[in-house]
Amino acid sequence: MTSMGRRAALRVSWRWSGDERVQTVWGGVAETAGADVVVRNAPYNGALAPGAVTTFGLLVVSNAVPDGLTMACDS
């Protein structure tokens, strides 16, 4: 707890539309199960203050350009 309130961990999830695969991630840790992907915070950035902003990046391998991507963010 901080004076700003509860701290939340990073969790972003999505589902691939094709054969995409995460090759590498920075600023987070990827977990995959088939077409489902979840990126969580890395050990060094374990929590965010309410209203805080962070970024992560990733390289993806695919045989085609994805149709689109809808991400969900929660804690």
Number of helices: 0
Portion of residues in helices? under 10%
Structural class: mainly beta
Poorly predicted residue ranges? none
Distance between the termini: 15 Å
- What is the chain-wise order of helices and strands? EEEEEE
Largest sheet: 4 strands, antiparallel
Beta-strand percentage?
A: 35-45%
Rg: 14 Å
Shape: elongated
Write out the strand line-up for the largest beta sheet, numbering strands in chain order: 3-4-1-6
How many strand units?
6
> Averaged pLDDT, please?
83
Structural overview:
The chain is elongated, with a radius of gyration of 14 Å. The mean pLDDT is 83. The protein has a four-stranded antiparallel sheet with strand order 3-4-1-6, with no helix packed on it. It has a two-stranded antiparallel ribbon with strand order 2-5. The protein contains no helices and six strands. The protein starts with 10 loop residues before the first strand and ends with a strand. The protein is an all-beta fold. The chain has strands spanning 11-15, 21-26, 29-33, 36-40, 57-61, 72-73.
SSE blueprint:
Layout: E1 11-15, E2 21-26, E3 29-33, E4 36-40, E5 57-61, E6 72-73
Antiparallel strand pairs: 1-4, 1-6, 2-5, 3-4
